[in-house]
Amino acid sequence: MSAPLDPSENTALRLTLDLVQRGTEFFGRELQGLTDDDLVGNSLLPGWTRRQVVAHVVSNAGALGRLAYWADTGIETVMCASLEARTAEIEAGGILRPDALRGAWADSADDLERRWHSLPDDRWSVPVRNGQGAMVPLRETTWMRTRELWIHAVDLDHGAGFSMLPEEVLERLLGDIVGDWAARGDTSRMLTATDSTHDGYGDPDAAEHVTGSLADLAGWATGRVQSGVVSDTGETPAAPRWL
């Protein structure tokens, strides 16, 4: 039996679950604003249509739901059987009729919410395997879902921008990205938000310092936005690969 969450972990979990709920509503509003013709148009992800982005978010809900099942039952259930299976699932979703795709989105979001809210408190500490193969406590999957919802709502490219994301999402996102760069051995830049009291992201002694608003830095660091940030090198830098 896993130990129950301590008070600080429980508070963090509840706050992230709230961000998931708000992100679900945000993504849903963006999707609702798209016509059937809009869905076949390009998203901000190169080579992806909007309908493929929606199918990806649907697939993500199912994958995280399988991890919740693992934590609840003790039966190991991976997010996806393979990269090929994940790709096939998204491709199958991407060719659904618009009404069926919208229904799949709503059903998948509702199903994940039900799975999470039915879990006993001690199940949130159960280790499960994330998409990179690492074992993490189930509670971390709520942040994984948060990122998917808010970022991919912007990817639908229908008016939503990073400036609409909550500050706590932007700050944690930048921390993740810089941490991922560092894990690959890239510590060559420091990111500083001009509209935040945060000390910055990265090594203060890094060779390059990049500044911009939280929203612009997040858009740039995720590879979605190519403007709004400046470097002390005097040029607008290209962001390293994130994922």
TrEMBL record:
Keywords: Isomerase
NCBIfam families named among the record's database cross-references: maleylpyruvate isomerase family mycothiol-dependent enzyme
Molecular function (Gene Ontology), one example: isomerase activity
Record's protein name: Maleylpyruvate isomerase family mycothiol-dependent enzyme
Keyword Aminoacyl-tRNA synthetase appears in the UniProt entry: no
InterPro entries named among the record's database cross-references: DinB/YfiT-like (IPR034660), Maleyloyr_isom (IPR017517), MDMPI_metal-binding (IPR024344), SCP2_sterol-bd_dom_sf (IPR036527)
Pfam families, alphabetized: MDMPI_N
Domain Mycothiol-dependent maleylpyruvate isomerase metal-binding residues, every copy: 22-156
Organism: Cryobacterium sinapicolor
Domain of life, source organism: Bacteria
Protein's UniProt keywords contain Isomerase: yes
